[in-house]
Design a protein that fits this description.
The complex is a heterodimer of chains A (484) and B (40). Chain A is mostly helical and 484 residues long. Chain A folds into 2 domains: 388 residues, Up-down Bundle (Sodium/glucose cotransporter); 83 residues, no CATH class. Chain A is built from 21 helices and no strands. With 40 residues, chain B is mostly helical. Chain B is 55% helix and 0% strand. The longest helix of chain B has 22 residues. The chains are: A mainly alpha (484), B mainly alpha (40). Chains A and B meet through α5, α10 and α13 of A and α1 of B.
């Protein structure tokens, strides 16, 4: 049997065993959603970073860097690091509010803070659509990896990983997810650093790597791919990547799952520091990939750059280790999304609108049923294999940013934000984001609407939040005290 | 500067600094949320 495949099977068995241990410790809904709000900073940092690094990082971002060179720095990497700073500020506050008001999901926060069940429904719908795209990206990335590195047909790659992560998410919920994320995080950080250490001498060090890039195409050393990307396009993506981090349901939940606010900020501090080192390695791997595979016509798509580099330029044992790590990166992200969607549907739709007196046990069962349904749907979506991953990623960000920016930040930090202001800004933000994105996808957007949709949606939603809130009735003091 | 163009090099440095800021916020105890209501 292929050594890469064998290692991967052993790894899947270990992960399933950890999932089973989580199952034995999961007794209540709180355990399933938020690990009983008992996560300490080190495990939380592993699960935060583990969720953050995914197929997108290895397949899409390295592919992007391979094709467009150092443009990967302003477009994706710098935005992430800026996002962590904002997340470090909001995470302890989210943790404190989750404990104080006994909330589980971000939608609980939006409904509770603004006393609006409409906001719960609106935010849940956007989240579910956004995560369908996101999970689809992960599965497509997995399929590409399996196809290139193992020679396994795309369809089987998607199904194998899909089944494994669905099972262990089902078993234990957040307890399994947090522990397996931490294991997976350690694994892919080590693998990335080993790959970095292996590849750097082969391209002659950083200076020689850049000299080689210059000889291939001088545009590769620019921040805008030699003018291919307009400054406003780069700013738009940077902004969207920066704000998507504190707004992301998975990260809000991580902060809520921490034992104390101090653990929450520790989670971000430790996680960001490790991720910063990790991203430096990703940058070098992306640029090295271009040095090793200089001809863009050699690959059928930019998503194949990293797996091809592993297959053709790395020794088999290292390739196998990296494959396992890549699988880990994918799984540690997808399990969190599955858990989030299961929680959303069970807590925010089923218990809220369908069966209000549902017991914890039946809500937990519903959450698990929807984990399976959602997993199957996204596997089907992935098998259609649409556009390059980074394009779907930019689309996904619209769903996670456009309706939320104003209600999240003003909800957390502005006492005068009211229900009317929040509803108006969420509807306008979400609506404008989707409208502009639809025009761009249909290729009928005028030049004035050619930047990232969030650049249009966010200012309007912020203005509406301020104007409408000031014009509408304020909350009684008791309500404000609960949230500040 | 390792063969990077100056703008790319400085953006790289800014990225590294940004990655350290949250750790500094944690270690310096700069962000202190109200702990009222946190159950032990």
């Amino acid at each position: 049997m292929d050594v890469k495949l064998l290692m991967f099977i052993i790894y899947c068995i270990i992960i399933l065993f950890v999932g089973y241990l989580g199952y034995r410790k999961t007794k209540t809904l709180g355990d399933f959603y938020l690990a009983g709000r008992q996560l300490k900073k080190w495990i939380a940092a592993g699960t935060f970073a583990g969720t953050f690094v995914s197929a997108i990082t290895f397949v899409s971002w390295i592919g992007f860097g391979w094709k467009f060179g150092t443009a990967i720095l302003p477009v994706y990497i710098f935005g992430c690091l800026c996002g962590y700073i904002i997340y470090a500020v909001v995470a302890p506050k989210l943790s404190m509010l989750a404990h104080r008001n006994d909330i589980y999901t971000p939608s609980d926060f939006y409904e509770g803070r603004f006393n609006s069940s409409f906001l719960r429904l609106w935010t849940t719908i956007f989240t579910i659509i956004g995560f369908t795209l996101y999970l689809g990206i992960q599965l497509i990335g997995t399929g590409v990896l399996f196809e290139v590195i193992l020679g396994i047909p795309f369809i089987y790659g998607v199904i194998i990983l899909g089944v494994v992560y669905t099972i262990y998410t089902l078993l234990g919920g957040m307890k399994s997810v947090a522990w397996t994320d931490a294991i997976q995080f350690s694994l892919f950080v080590i693998a990335t650093l080993v790959a970095f250490g292996y590849v750097l001498p082969r391209v002659g060090g950083i200076s020689q790597m850049n000299a080689s890039l210059a000889s291939i195409d001088t545009k590769l050393l620019t921040l805008n791919a030699g003018g291919a990307f307009k400054p406003m396009w780069i700013i738009g993506i940077w902004f969207a990547v920066t704000v998507v981090i504190p707004l992301h349901y998975g990260y809000i939940s991580r902060a809520m799952a921490c034992k104390t606010p101090r653990d929450a900020i520790g989670m971000v501090g430790i996680g960001s520091f490790i991720l910063m080192i990790f991203y430096f390695a990703i940058l070098i791997l992306a640029l090295s990939a271009r040095v090793l595979i200089p001809d863009t016509a050699a690959l059928t798509g930019l998503d194949k750059a990293f797996p091809t580099m592993v297959l053709e330029h790395f020794p088999i044992a290292l390739g196998a280790f990296i494959l396992v790590a890549l699988g880990a990166a994918v799984m540690s992200t997808t399990d969190s999304i599955l858990l989030q969607v299961g929680s959303n549907i069970a807590n925010d739709i089923y218990k809220r609108y369908i069966k209000k007196d549902a017991s914890d046990k039946s809500t937990l069962s519903i959450a698990r049923i929807f984990v399976v349904i959602f997993a199957v749907l996204t596997i089907i979506f992935a098998l259609t294999k649409p556009a390059a991953l980074y394009l779907i990623y930019n689309f996904f960000i619209v769903f996670l940013v456009a309706p939320y920016v104003a209600i999240f930040f003003f909800g957390l930090y502005w006492k005068k934000a009211t229900k009317a202001g929040a509803v108006a800004s969420a509807i306008a933000g979400g609506g404008i984001g989707i409208f502009v994105q639809a025009l761009q996808l249909a290729k009928i957007a005028p030049p004035s609407l050619s930047f990232h949709p969030t650049l249009y949606a966010v200012p309007v939603s912020v203005i509406l939040m301020i104007v409408v809130s000031l014009a509408s009735k304020q909350y009684p003091e008791a309500h404000v005290k609960k949230w500040f | 500067m390792w063969g990077f163009r100056p703008e790319a090099f400085w953006l790289l440095i800014a990225t590294i600094v940004a990655g350290i800021v949250p750790l500094v916020l944690f270690l310096s105890n700069a962000v202190k949320p109200d702990r009222k209501g946190v159950r032990k």
